[in-house]
Amino acid sequence: MQQTGNINPPGISDVEYLPFHQLLSIVDNKIAGVIARGFPIALYKKKWLSSGIKQNSNFKLSDLKRFPFLTQSDLIDNSRDSSPKKYAGRHIQFWNSADIESPAPCWLPRGKDDVADYMRYALRIAHVLELREDDRILVLSQAASGATNMLPYALAHVLKAEQVRSQIITMDMGILRHTKKWVEFLNRNRPKVMIAQGKDALELTQMLIGGNSDQSPSASSPPDGSLKPMPDLRLILLYGPDAAIQQTSVYSTYQADTHLSLGLVDLNLFGMECSARQGIHLWLDTGIYEIIPQNEIAKEQTQQGYVPGSNWLWETEAGIQGELVITNFSEILPLIRYRTGYLVEALGHETCRCGRTHPRVRLL
Ligand SMILES: [Zn+2]
Hints:
- The protein has helices spanning 20-38, 42-50, 72-81, 84-88, 112-128, 151-161, 173-178, 180-188, 198-211, 243-254, 294-302; strands at 94-98, 106-110, 136-141, 167-172, 193-197, 235-239, 257-260, 271-273, 280-282, 287-293, 311-312, 321-328, 338-346, 360-363.
- By secondary structure, it is α/β, with parallel strands linked by helices.
- Helix 9 links the parallel strand 5 (193-197) and strand 6.
- Helix 5 (112-128) packs across helix 6 (151-161) and helix 9 (198-211) runs parallel beside helix 10.
- Zinc ion (ZN) is lined by residues 274, 276, 278, 281, 352, 354, 356.
């Protein structure tokens, strides 16, 4: 525990502030290994060979754009048609899926190194959120097998390892809807930090206010006379597809600082706002980010067979909007040039006011 009372483990914070060229060299050093892990996987093998890409061990970042894009349909089709070994290689330790509520969820297996990475990312989240001693953290978790479901347990693990005495309360909206006792529990145990999807945070407001009687000791009146649903709450980390749209409502409802996160957890990546709130930092040491500009997407939609071009996020001018493409460094099933479907706006190359060097986007 540091003297500031905030979590600030050495090493974790260093990479946030590395000079940009050092961040790029981390990425460049990883790319050959990532592609080597992709070659034996059925998902990539055929596609890459038919694009004229031959295996070698010297791939650099500049080679990445020669590789074809990967789509969610590719993942769904391959997970249905392949054995686990062919789909993702060996030594799978953990399966999680994206779009768990859709009829065809997309399975994303992880190896032991990926699980270890998740723990490190959880620690980094704790650091960026500047979690403090004695924080009580409510995580509105999602149903398994989304990887967000792991977050409260990972946080509990890493905070204990850092000897930070915090409490984690993990709760599912389905439970809250059906068991009023848990709403009373939250009203008694006043969380100071909340991690939630925007829609869940807003739904929870109604439950908390509805669960409070006028005499409730937990209900406090701010100067404008409205009721604060969580009187002790100082910080909310919002994630999910509509986080940016719901941020203003959540902020005004809870009257607590609200940071956005990009819902990349299932893709083994994280991105979140810092206290400067100048867009979401995408952690460049954990993945590679490209943007397909809107004009390229428009050409793709009107010209059959057109393959859109992309820009490295860190070279994209501020204000350019488009689809986010990611490459992660997963051990078992690296996602290489995966089209996320997320529309974002690049925020330029300047170092953030917080001092972090990782590129930033705004969610659209
Ligand atoms: Zn920042």
